[in-house]
Amino acid sequence: MQQHPHHDPDTIELPTPTAWPIVSAFGLTLLVAGLVTNLLVSAVGFLVGLLGTVGWFSDVFPHPKHEPVPVNPDRARPAPIRTQGRVVQMLKQGNIPHRAHVPTEFHPYRVGVIGGLAGGLVMAVLACIWGVVFEKSLWYPINLMAATGVPELGASSLKALHDFSAAGLIVGTIAHVTLSILVGLLYAVLVPMFPRKSEFVLGALVGPLLWTALVWSTLHWVSPMLSQGINWPWFVFCQIAFGAVCGWVVFKSGKMATMQSWSLAQKMGVESQHRDEESH
Hints:
By secondary structure, the chain is mainly alpha-helical. It folds into 2 domains: 11-70, Helix Hairpins (Orthogonal Bundle), CATH 1.10.287; 105-261, no CATH class. It contains 11 helices and 4 strands, in the order βααββαααααααβαα. A two-stranded antiparallel ribbon has the order 1-2. The protein has a two-stranded antiparallel ribbon with strand order 3-4. The longest helix is centred in the middle third of the chain and has 26 residues, at 109-134. The protein starts with 10 loop residues before the first strand and ends with a helix. The relative contact order is 0.11.
């Protein structure tokens, strides 16, 4: 092992910096990239990698190269940091610490289902009003909803959607109820993540507008006829009504604390002695 005597007390010998490892890595990158591009790239990468490897090993073998690095005298060094004794507050069971996972409270899923059904009912009534007033047909919005799932309705003209269709009524009702429940569950999950002061506004306005933008941008690819038959201003109004009703139901419901705020006994399902005495 080579010895490096220190002749100057204000310097220390450290390994000499070298860029050859980076050159070797670059050559290896070119070597691999040439396998999927051109063999000429691999040839250049091999030469660059070989050059970097030779230069790297020449700096390390037979003895690593060193260079003197000046060391600041004691008077120029910063004063050491002294720590004072402190008391660490341990986390207590049943309390929500500052490291809690947000949200700390959530709405039950049944509230989302109820809110979705309530909003879907209001939306269905408004859609039927639009069909009777503007299209002179109660079945037009229902058949329009079912057009993507019923091939006969999807292949027919917009005038044919004004007539009653049993398949359209069944498929449209199932699709509307299913989507209402799913969106209601989505509201129940997302509302606790919103700021408390703007939960209702975000749920009633921002959510429906985002959903309308998504439907408007993709519906002409799924069903061009359905995209042409929708009255988009009324559609936005119905979506906002759905969001307002569903958001109000979810917002007014009570929240439940997540399990992270439960005590260990509650998480394990162990009943306390006080509860046992009350049950007897």
